[in-house]
Amino acid sequence: MPAPQPGQPLHESCIASLPLVHTGKVRDIYAVGDDKLLIVTTDRLSAFDVVMPTPIPSKGEVLTKVSAFWFDKLKAIVPSQATKAAVGAHDENIAFEQMATLIGADLATQIRDVSLALYQAAAEYALTRGIIIADTKFEFGLDEAGQLVWIDEALTPDSSRFWPADQYQPGSNPPSFDKQFVRDWLEASGWNKQAPGPELPPEIVARTA
């Protein structure tokens, strides 16, 4: 696969000198030696657990910079690293009791408490910048010592919904600084939410970028 030209959106990475070990919805993961991974955040966009064929220019750069900011700002709460789920894999919501059954009550409680602490700290900071973090998701893993580690991405427009605080009214649907705009367009397009996803028109790409 030829490398993308400068300025072109990156739909699929290609690093011939490194083995590709995993391709996620948005991120490609390469092995660097025996103990390190290189995570490339592409310009791919997924919605309803389907990767769209149309990339969003500079999306990967924005996600990386936003994650780097939050990982650093909230590092006192939990250490961080990164990884991702498979293309097409559906994220499943489960109750706390189900999580405790799967991974144990102690670890489940730690994850719940850390998640709430991360969200509270991030939401309070974002509000000082005029942004409401309506919701988000966190992913965690365990390092070789069994320590909880915050992985994947951190409060990006892909994993969160951001609303302008000055336009929020209870019961309303405020404009979003995230991919909800694309989701709304897809909902109205008549697409059946099954792969393959539709090509995004240029005006939707431009308003999302």
Give your account of this protein's structure.
The protein has a three-stranded antiparallel beta sheet with strand order 1-2-3. Strands 4-5 form a two-stranded antiparallel sheet. It has helices spanning 59-73, 96-103, 105-128, 180-189, 202-208, and strands at 20-23, 27-32, 36-41, 46-47, 50-51, 131-136, 139-142, 148-151, 160-164. The protein is built from five helices and nine strands. The chain is globular, with a radius of gyration of 18 Å. The model is unreliable at 82-88 (pLDDT under 50). A hairpin with a 3-residue loop joins strand 2 and strand 3. It has a single domain, classed as 2-Layer Sandwich (D-amino Acid Aminotransferase, Chain A, domain 1), CATH 3.30.470.20. Helices cover 31% and strands 19% of the residues.
Q: What are the secondary-structure elements, in order, as H or E?
A: EEEEEHHHEEEEHH
Cα distance spanning the termini:
25 Å
- Which geometry do the CA atoms define? globular
- Under CATH at level 1, the class stands as Alpha Beta
Side-by-side strand order of the widest sheet? 1-2-3
Number of domains: 1
Class from secondary-structure proportions: alpha+beta
Helical percentage:
25-40%
| Beta fraction | 15-25%
Count of helical stretches? 5
